[in-house]
Amino acid sequence: MIEPSILSKGINRFSFFFLSFLLGCTSVSEEINPSVHYSVHEKMIQSLPSAFTPLTQNELEKNWATEYRMGLFFAKKLDLYRAVTSFQRAEFLLSEEPNPVLCMDRKHEVEYYTLLCYSLGKRHDDLVTTFESSSLAFVNPDFKAYKDLLLILGEAYDATKQKHKAFSVHQALAQNYPKSAQAVLIGSALQTADNKTALAILHQEKGEILTHEVSIQKALSQSMHPHHFLAYDQLEEHKTAKLKSVIEQTHTSYLAQKKSPFTAQLLGVIPGGGYAYLGQYQSAITAFSVNALFIGTAAYFFLNGNVPAGVLTTSFEAGWYFGSIYGAGQAAKTYNERLYEALVQPVMEEKKLYPLLQLEYGF
User: Fold this and answer.
1) pLDDT tens, residue by residue, 220-261
2) What are phi and psi of 343, to 5 degrees?
3) What's the pLDDT score for residue 115?
4) Neighbours of 214 (CB within 10 A)
5) How many angstroms separate the first and last alpha carbons of the chain?
6) What Cα–Cα distance (Å) separates residue 208 from each residue in 131, 166, 205, 229?
């Protein structure tokens, strides 16, 4: 005869391993993948000045100038498709000029406006392709909209997952325009819930290599980040302190309100418990009812000697049961993502941490 204490220990061990197996097979990561988006309003674009000089009387008589002006008209109304078409026509007509070298500055303008339209329309693949085949690939900081060009390029390379090129652009931004770079790099980190990097920038943490001559490949191989090249002495301390306070408060608020996927799954061992923990009571009632129905039906078949039907029903129940546990964990993760987005998005907009909100010039 087995002693009660030994039996009790055996049951406890079995329960522990069963729960570990259950949660291990259906575990959901604590990491979140928020979707923090923004849009640029027409009024903002219309309020920005142009970086370039108005057309001269002699230029206004050219065919390309008509297309150029039409492009500006459509762009200011955010009719981006027609704006791009007009700018591309203007670019073609500029290339047909008797002395295209004298028109190179205007060619740069037209190409830049095309890129800006693509950026505003979130057509990042077209932006990258157009830029890399344009004369803008060779401009330097003397180009009047150079900072804005870096801003839209950095966002495009990030969006198209071209890590080396994005790093290069962000490094150039950090070296030439540290104030804008700080905001953009913090915003980029917050968009991916990388609070560690955001706070590292705000605490002015630097890497070991800070020379401007370091290659992109070497920087990446040594886990450098663009913010390691920031000239922190050129940043305004009081603005940095305020931003740090806001982000830390937001992060603290998120941690206080977030839900644990593990806890949701653990409570989900009792069907519907995980959903109830998240406040999703309709889903909790549904999960409990469906599992109870299958368990009751399987028990009825077994008690009445219909083993095949009982086994079949039990297999269905196993799917619902494990699915309910996994679903509770996923629901917790989704809850955290929506919570994070709701907390971070207003901060991103108010502090202008999105690249396009850093633009100085419009059309």
Assistant:
1) 555 667 777 777 777 878 888 888 899 999 999 999 999 999
2) -80, -40
3) 96
4) 16
5) 89
6) 32, 21, 10, 10
How many independent structural domains does the chain possess? 3
In this structure, what is the dihedral angle of CA atoms 210, 214, 220, 221, given to the nearest 10 degrees? -100
Start-end of H helices in the chain: 4-25, 42-47, 57-60, 63-76, 80-95, 104-120, 124-132, 146-159, 163-176, 178-191, 195-202, 216-221, 237-257, 261-267, 273-277, 281-303, 307-350
pLDDT tens, residue by residue, 129-182: 999 999 898 888 899 999 999 999 999 999 999 988 998 899 889 888 988 998
Does 240 share its domain with 264?
no
Q: pTM value?
A: 0.79
Integer angstrom CA distances of residue 228 from 56, 63, 178:
44, 48, 11
The answer to whether residue 17 is domain-embedded is no
Q: Are residues 164 and 248 in the same domain?
A: yes
Q: Which of the listed residues 139, 162, 186 is the one where a domain comes to its end?
A: 139
Domain boundaries, position 189 = 145-256
The amino acid sitting at 312 is L
Encoded tokens for 26: 């259906």
Asked if 174 and 160 sit in the same domain, the reply is yes
Among 272, 247, 282, CA closest to 324: 272
Residue with tokens 């061992």: 269
Single out the residue of 52, 81, 77 nearest to residue 65, CA to CA. Answer: 52
Same domain, 157 and 237: yes
